[in-house]
Amino acid sequence: MSDIFIGTCGWTDPALLRSGWYPPGHRTPENRLRHYATRFPLVEADSPYYALPTARTTTLWADRTPPGFRFDVKAFSLLTGHPTRPSALPADLRGHPRDETLRTEVWTRYAAALAPLREAGRLGTLLFQYPPSLVPGPEAESFIRTARERAHDWPFAVEFRNPAWWETDRTASFLRDLGATAVATDTREGPRQAPVTTPHLALVRFHGRSPHWLTGTKEERFRHTYTERELAEWLPRIRSLSTRTKELHLLFNNCCADAAAEAARTMRDLLA
């Protein structure tokens, strides 16, 4: 049986901070992360998707969490083909063409910034979430393969937002060949399982079951309070996954108020 890690996608979402989930007095980044780490052993760091992190920041993340804690870290938007604001890039790169040379330089800086997490044993995986616009085909596979070759010695997980990727058996063999973890999801369509593609990690992201998934504002897309029954649907799948990997990560992304933290707690109780 694998070690099961449960957590939320982010720990500083404004809605979570307003919800009262953090005890009074926990107003600093240090206090919040230290408190979070007493409740869950895993968190997804999503801020690196929006801007490149710094080594100082990730060193502090490692220092403020206990041994055995895991950070799954989202890849910077440019690395996954998402629209990227010029202001999100380092100043010296903003005028550069959006090509593989730029992505290689961005990857180099991204990897250097995350090195303290890996060296401290806190890194779970890098999460490359690809947009709906990335449709299956040779060009898309080449794009992903190039990203994997840059990150050849890093843990690497892939989430596809275009469902067509899972309408062919080729996707599973493609990810196995890359040594990449296939990410399963839960959305308004319900559970979408992904095959186990690496022996060391399986990952499930629970996005909520909003009817506005992929169409509304961020708040509308992720506004959902999971019921115990909805989470219990996953128990047989989770038990099956846990027999085939070293670690299983369950992350809750229904980030309105404290809904993700409550869903993570409920899932932990169900599995207990």
From TrEMBL:
Pfam families: DUF72. This is DUF72 domain-containing protein. It comes from the Bacteria.
